[in-house]
Amino acid sequence: xxxxxxxxxxxxxxxxxxxxxxxxxxxxxxxxxxxxxxxxxxxxxxxxxxxxxxxxxxxxxxxxxxxxxxxxxxxxxxxxxxxxxxxxxxxxxxxxxxxxxxxxxxxxxxxxxxx
Amino acid sequence: xxxxxxxxxxxxxxxxxxxxxxxxxxxxxxxxxxxxxxxxxxxxxxxxxxxxxxxxxxxxxxxxxxxxxxxxxxxxxxxxxxxxxxxxxxxxxxxxxxxxxxxxxxxxxxxxxxxxxxxxxxxxxxxxxxxxxxxxxxxxxxxxxxxxxxxxxxxxxxxxxxxxxxxxxxxxxxxxxxxxxxxxxxxxxxxxxxxxxxxxxxxxxxxxxxxxxxxxxxxxxxxxxxxxxxxxxxxxxxxxxxxxxxxxxxxxxxxxxxxxxxxxxxxxxxxxxxxxxxxxxxxxxxxxxxxxxxxxxxxxxxxxxxxxxxxxxxxxxxxxxxxxxxxxxxxxxxxxxxxxxxxxxxxxxxxxxxxxxxxxxxxxxxxxxxxxxxxxxxxxxxxxxxxxxxxxxxxxxxxxxxxxxxxxxxxxxxxxxxxxxxxxxxxxxxxxxxxxxxxxxxxxxxxxxxxxxxxxxxxxxxxxxxxxxxxxxxxxxxxxxxxxxxxxxxxxxxxxxxxxxxxxxxxxxxxxxxxxxxxxxxxxxxxxxxxxxxxxxxxxxxxxxxxxxxxxxxxxxxxxxxxxxxxxxxxxxxxxxxxxxxxxxxxxxxxxxxxxxxxxxxxxxxxxxxxxxxxxxxxxxxxxxxxxxxxxxxxxxxxxxxxxxxxxxxxxxxxxxxxxxxxxxxxxxxxxxxxxxxxxxxxx
Lengths: 115, 684
Prior knowledge:
Chain A contains 2 helices and 1 strand; from the N terminus they run βαα. Chain A has 115 residues and is mainly α. Chain A has a domain at 16-90. Chains A and B meet through strand 1, helix 1 and helix 2 of A and helix 16, strand 1, helix 23, helix 27 and helix 28 of B.
């Protein structure tokens, strides 16, 4: 591990967390049903390859489908949450840059007025 | 004069019909086509829904210019045929006016105009093959081209065409002698079938390989897929196709008997995926339960060190250099793009995939983007190998990523820690066992995905070097490994690195390349102790913000799980329908193909307060305007509204069948002598 210099932590802005929550809500609204479908489909594919098609009503085959459904929901849910956090962090970064640029401009303007 | 009126009336009706018959030799002698009929206005009176369907026809469809009566000539294909003339088959009556879709009368309705394909079809297996139970052709025009009235797309739309092929060719094993019962589902599983399902019209459909109107049995030398002709057929799309290449294209199912290697590869990857998922879920569940327990007991928090410790809990030190972060960024872009553009193809049969593909720009566009992302992955692989080589040359290459026996101790120790059977977390070096899992999963997965992807990208070239059967195996391996990779990354990597309660909702390491002293101490203790000694980092200089509290992270995850359970308990299908009603998504009806012509149910205006005069005159207005008291004496009565009877009094039925060919009907109202018949003598 390269431990050259120690710096103060730079993370922890509310945007990241709020973005994650927005991502979660978005997932519950628009992503939950497709993720159930896709997860179930993946489960059927896996169950079909292991237990043969058409899938019989054995407990293991059904468990495989359920495993696929849960995997689909958690995987897609994770994508939405992390995606929301990343987008919000990006927005925060952009906001910060704009804010800094505006402050610089204001500072220059004040100096020009003073001159 | 009165005696001649019926004769004159009959002549008035018959002469135009005779003139029309001379123009159309195929008309039968019982047709009724009134010369004054304007289909656009007349048929519309009762068949608005049919005309509405036809107005939706594609502009390029030649039938949009075809008038109703051009197909519905006379009694041929006449939906007004009464059930008693269709052998009691009411369904057929409603669909085809008493005829099945294979009936010569119906076929003739098409071949009158499309005579250029008639001969081809008649000699094909569909036209000349063994007869069906109905005693007609195996597959006729409507069998393949679908219901004309309901056709709202290009008649050559390959997806619907394939579904219509499948509708006939999907049967149980042995149901049809010497026929392959796996044609339907094996086609859906091929790259061609998936692309067509997603709307790519450039992909090969059934008729591209097997022929259209000139389709023949596979063992017929005339067949396009006969072994002697198969390579030539493939070369229509794949210019460099060889015999080895064509071996990869078949309707063999992936079963142990039919295709052992395909079966084995599919089974291997499925078992690997399920086994990996089970392992991940066990680990994830243990970790999450431990985190929840800690959130309420506070027992797992680090006891922070004294002031003189070299690093504070909140301080950050570098963990990844710029090259690693650049490679990670490239991996994110390529992986997410590959997953997003590849998953719809794998799950083409799921209705949502078609919508997703449409939103993302179409299947052809996705294929292009997918290959671009694959190329980026290849570049990334080269970049990584060069990076490792340069590190090795400069003596900086770390061997800590290589799996070691200590990792087994780390796994068992961590599990015991999660279960509360061990007080302290095991000490890990720079990379924990689950991070090594991430890395080596990708290290094994990328060459596999790139290799199989290249085979699929350049199948003709590969088939010259390698056995053609490898293309099929590459397709299975590429698809199944992708599923494993997607689930592993989105579940395992995302949770361990970003969604754990302590870092939720995102770790910043991949952006800043830095890690906090607290995280270093907690997760990479060996590295921490090597740099800073055994004392834990100093206490943070500020209190944790509300959003950093693990309770909220756990709460969010609980909401996800709870919502999942609720939806699972609910009937998903009904939920989908409810969403469709709300307009959130389309109802899942894309794959339903109705072979039957969607004729509107003939409710019979007669049953709804039928005013036969006005209704019949819509089409037969010549009776009103071209008749006078001489040719049609009743005209004076309906103009004066003095006649209680109507058209049906004589013509009996709205089915257009009752002709006043003799004067029997007249005797219901008139005395024989009134209409020129000899007076009937009363029976003795």
